[in-house]
Structure formats: structure tokens, C-alpha cells
Design goal:
Pfam families: Phage_int_SAM_1, Phage_integrase. It comes from marine sediment metagenome. With 333 residues, the protein is mostly helical. It is built from 13 helices and 3 strands. It has a 3-stranded antiparallel sheet, with no helix packed on it.
């Protein structure tokens, strides 16, 4: 009996590139491993596939420049990034967003302990870094957030504080709701809905942290504007039980497509699975003996769901009669 290899969940560069040849080419470059971890940060920040591809392609150019100048990632610092950007300007090969990507990538390498630390900061910068480190420790230890999420939150907080105070002394007690709304309005229109939602979530978290630490007396988190989800503005947030039954009844189970749709809809309706979880369901995830389904959910965590009889019968009908022969282990083809 042939044992089929199980597909691994996409992560890192594979979230932005599907072509294996391109993925291998990116991995083989001088920044391969660092591009992998940086791609995970981009995905966590909500960057769309096209935007992520543009950023990764630009970082490949940095890797090629490092190789030509006989440098490594450990040699990247302010001077090296400035020299690279100067070369790009001379060749008229610098596009919108490239400079920000280069500096963000340098910050990522420093956070990973690859690039040398930044030069000794002034007193104002030291206050800023100290506050940001305390906030980062709060996110990691108190809230238990993932490293990627912590990095995104801290990036937005740093950007807000630099926008508000610049080189002036850090005085968070001077913050006003108008500062927050101005920042959000200025930055919410770039990078898509997911990015804007992450921005306001990070800011609310930071302002709650300031109150808890006694840095401010007023909870400014309530002043952070909401980012409306325009994609769902015209649709209902949920459907009633009777509407669910009507949808299930609309499946023509006398035909293969109807039986397949019925099994999918039951997984959604009875077990509350997400669309991506149903699409990623594999044959080995169904434990018929114990009556359970293993589901790969958010954060690549696996949950066990009960295989209720109604759902089990629908799956059996589809698998026995309608699922085409295939080397794929996915349940639904």
C-alpha cells in the first residue's frame, strides 16, 4: 500500500509564492533564511500577496548587493543600508515603499540578533526604547502573544510615538485623542483593511498598557477610531437556524455535487468549522474509531471536534460514492 505524504501548512515565503522554483531560488540566496522569517512577519501584519512579493523581491536585491560587495547579513547597519539605497537611486531603481522596506528589514535582523545593534541612543531615544521594551515584555509575558504579533504591535507603537514626538522628549501624559485620530486617519488608507485593523488594535493595546503602568491617568484606548470592515458591510453577520436548514435542504443529494456540498455545509453548520479548516481537512484527520475530527486551526494549533452521526453519515456517503480517485489526501477535491 502506498503511503501518501501529508502536505504541510504553508508558511513564510510559501504564503506569497506558490511556485516551488521561485521559493527555492529565494531560499538559496544570501538572505534565504532571513527572508523566510521576514515573510512570516509580513503575513502576520496582514500584507497582501502582491505587496509581500514586491517586498521580498526588493530584499533579494539587497542580498545580491551584499554578495557583490562581499558582505553578509551580519554586516548590515545604517551605513550599509544607506549605501545600498544610494546605489538604487543612482540607477533609478528605487520605488515607492522600497526605502521603508529596507529599514524595516534591518530592524527585523536586529531583533533576530543577526545585524549589529543600533548605535548608542540619546536620552530621548533611550526613554523611547525603554518604554517599548517594557510594552514588548508585557505582550509576551502578560498577554502571551506570539513573537510575530508582538513585533507588529511594537512596530506600530514605535511609528506612532516617533510621529508624535520625533526627537523631542517622550511625554506620553501629553497625548491627546486628537493625536490618535490624526495618526489613524493618516495611515489607515495604506496597505489594506487587515493592516489598518492591526494598527488600531496595537494602539488600543498600548494605551491600556500605559494606564496599567501608571504612565497616563486617562485610558486613551477608547479614543482609537474603529476601522469598519467594508467587505462585510452589505452582508448579514449570521443567519438564523431556519435559514441554515433551508440551505441544507437545497442540496440535491441525488447527485454527486449535492452530496459533496451537503457534507461541507454540515461541517460548517454543525461543527462551526471555518471555510479554510474545511478546505484543509485531510483523510487522516478523521478518526472513525474514536468518532473525532482533528482540525488545524489558527496558529497551526490542532483541535479535536466530535464527529456527530449526521456529519459522519454525510462524509461516508461522499467518500464512498463521489470522491474521485486522487493521490491528494484532501477530503474535498
Amino acid at each position: 500500500m502506498t503511503v501518501m505524504k501529508r502536505e504541510k501548512p504553508r508558511a513564510g515565503i510559501a504564503l506569497y509564492y506558490l511556485d516551488q522554483a521561485t521559493i527555492q531560488r529565494l531560499h538559496s540566496g544570501s538572505l534565504g533564511l532571513h527572508l523566510e522569517s521576514y515573510a512570516a512577519i509580513l503575513a502576520e501584519a496582514g500584507y497582501a500577496r502582491l505587496t509581500g512579493q514586491i517586498k521580498l523581491r526588493f530584499l533579494v536585491k539587497i542580498g545580491e548587493w551584499l554578495r557583490r560587495t562581499r558582505r553578509t547579513a551580519a554586516d548590515l547597519d545604517e551605513a550599509a543600508i544607506s549605501a545600498f539605497l544610494y546605489t538604487c537611486r543612482r540607477r533609478r531603481a528605487l520605488h515607492r515603499g522600497d526605502q521603508r522596506t529596507a529599514w524595516h528589514f534591518l530592524e527585523h535582523l536586529r531583533h533576530e540578533g543577526v545585524a549589529p545593534a543600533a548605535p548608542l541612543a540619546s536620552q530621548e531615544e533611550s526613554q523611547l526604547m525603554s518604554l517599548e521594551r517594557r510594552y514588548e515584555n508585557h505582550l509576551r509575558k502578560e498577554r502571551g502573544l506570539s513573537a510575530a504579533t508582538v513585533k507588529v504591535y511594537r512596530w506600530w507603537v514605535h511609528r506612532f510615538l516617533m510621529w508624535r514626538f520625533g526627537k523631542r522628549p517622550l511625554s506620553v501624559w501629553e497625548l491627546h485623542p486628537s493625536d490618535i485620530s490624526s495618526f489613524v486617519v493618516k495611515h489607515a488608507g495604506f496597505g489594506g483593511l487587515r493592516r489598518a485593523q492591526l494598527m488600531v488594535t496595537a494602539l488600543r493595546s498600548f494605551f491600556r498598557f500605559l494606564v496599567g503602568e501608571g504612565e497616563t491617568r486617562i485610558d486613551l484606548s477608547v479614543s482609537v477610531p474603529r476601522v469598519s470592515c467594508r467587505r462585510l458591510a452589505a452582508g448579514p453577520k449570521y443567519i438564523s437556524d431556519s435559514e441554515v436548514e433551508l440551505i441544507l435542504a437545497s442540496c440535491d443529494r441525488s447527485k454527486p455535487a449535492g452530496r459533496r456540498d451537503y457534507a461541507i455545509l454540515l461541517l460548517l453548520a454543525r461543527l462551526g468549522l471555518r471555510a479554510g479548516e474545511v478546505a484543509g481537512l485531510e483523510l487522516g484527520d478523521i478518526d472513525w474509531r474514536s468518532g473525532e475530527i482533528r482540525v488545524l486551526g489558527k496558529g497551526l494549533l490542532r483541535d479535536r471536534m466530535p464527529l456527530v452521526p449526521e456529519v459522519g453519515e454525510a462524509l461516508v456517503a461522499y467518500l464512498r460514492r463521489d470522491r474521485p480517485r486522487s493521490s491528494s489526501r484532501r477530503v474535498f477535491l
